TrEMBL record:
Residues 228-375 form the FIST C-domain domain. Coiled coil: none annotated. InterPro entries: FIST_C (IPR019494), FIST_domain_N (IPR013702). This is FIST C-terminal domain-containing protein.
Length: 396
């Protein structure tokens, strides 16, 4: 098994895909992982990929403003591919699912998608080593739950919610079968080499904690019986003296997300995060993740230095499970778009630290509107401002 990345800023989709084919095509090509900015029409991209890489399983989604690889941070317009070359004992299968029906039975349709991917991989009845999941914003938690229920056992998941550059719902998810704007793409991987995963928030809890007393879907209406917007702004102001306005909301919420305890390691909690998308006229907060009535939420905080350091720490966390310290082959890393936007030009420092942690081996990293993964304690979750990673490494 080996991995290789390539990227292009060519604006014409047909010419861009042809360039990527020349850089990556080989008879041993087993799978493609693709991330692109929303300047590229996803339907045209998938048509061109189908011509250039016929019958090669592909999975991917749109990324906010750019993509990272071991070659650098690539600002959009850009398309980046990771090619996976593997042997005859491996298998890869993709599936694409539209969720436009408001009455969707997520368990049933996700099971259908998984069976589609298993059939494509010729691995019916088997459990994959890894699931790559790209569910458009709003569907992530239900899709994760359905995946675990379908297999009947926890399966390592790495995922990111498709993003656009200006939160205008111009996101998309793709496979070799096509594209969806409301739905999911996934790939089941049965690689010939082992892999390990990591998932982390990298933010610290503050002293402010409350209980969600009224919530609907992704809207928090009340915390401790008071309007959620009022409580959140008071917490941020009391902690940091920052006054949040709607105009500068996104600038500040990436500094101060809400955390929910996902589990414990040595009696110390670790958190999954979510942050407001907007404040509503009635004092509620629309979030990028579902938070239920009765859940406890804590105001979290993270410095710029923490954001720069944490991506390489998550890669290191995944690699600590590589007990034989085997050679790294490559990695897929999912990094939150909100954190990337907050860092600005400092995102280059993140890329450099990941490259050093990976010893220069290939990696690909989109910037997403939600991240999915499995914590150290085994819990699978969807959150915001998170980092998820998988490392492939050489077996003994």
């Amino acid at each position: 098994m080996r991995l290789k990345t390539a990227f292009t800023h060519i604006s014409n989709p047909a010419l861009a895909v042809q360039y990527l084919k020349e850089a990556l095509f080989s008879p041993e090509l087993s799978s493609l992982v693709c991330y692109y900015t929303d300047e590229y029409p996803a339907d045209i991209l998938t048509t061109e990929f189908g011509k250039a890489f016929a019958d090669v399983p592909l999975v991917g989604c749109s990324s906010c403003k750019g993509v990272m690889t071991e070659h650098g941070f690539h600002a959009g317009p850009v398309i980046a591919l990771m090619a996976i070359y593997d042997g005859p004992n491996s298998a890869y299968g993709s599936a694409l699912l539209s969720l436009d029906n408001a009455l969707t039975d997520y368990k049933t349709v996700t099971a259908e998608a998984i069976n589609q991917a298993l059939k494509s991989a010729n691995r019916i009845g088997e459990i994959p080593s890894l699931v790559i999941l790209h569910a458009t914003p709003g569907n992530e938690e239900l899709c994760i739950q359905a995946i675990d229920e379908t297999f009947g056992t926890p399966v390592p998941i790495i995922g990111g919610s498709p993003a656009d550059s200006y939160i205008q719902r111009q996101w998309s998810a793709i496979t070799e079968r096509g594209t969806v704007k409301n739905g999911l793409s996934l790939q089941l991987m049965f690689p010939s080499k082992p892999n390990t995963t990591g998932f982390s928030a990298g933010y610290s809890p503050t002293e402010f904690t409350g209980t969600v007393t009224r919530a609907t879907g992704r809207y928090i209406h009340e915390i401790d019986g008071e309007p959620a917007e009022q409580i959140y702004k008071e917490w941020v102001s009391d902690h940091s003296s920052v006054q949040i306005s709607e105009h500068y909301l996104f600038k500040h919420v990436t500094r101060f997300p809400l955390g929910r305890i996902a589990g414990y390691v040595h009696n110390r909690p670790y958190y999954k995060l979510s942050h407001p998308v907007r404040m509503t006229p009635d004092g509620a907060m629309e979030m990028f993740a579902t938070i239920s009535q009765g859940e406890e939420v804590t105001l979290m905080t993270g410095s710029r230095e923490q954001l720069i350091q944490r991506a390489s720490r998550v890669v290191d966390q995944a690699n600590t499970q590589n007990y034989q310290s085997s050679q790294l082959l490559g990695s897929i890393i999912i990094y939150c778009a909100g954190s990337m936007l907050r860092l600005g030009d400092d995102i280059v420092g993140v890329q450099e630290k990941i490259k050093a942690q990976m010893n220069g081996q290939p990696f690909i990293c989109p910037f997403t509107y939600g991240e999915q993964g499995r914590f150290t304690g085994g819990e699978t979750a969807h959150g915001n401002l998170m980092i998820s990673s998988v490392i492939f490494y050489e077996s003994e």
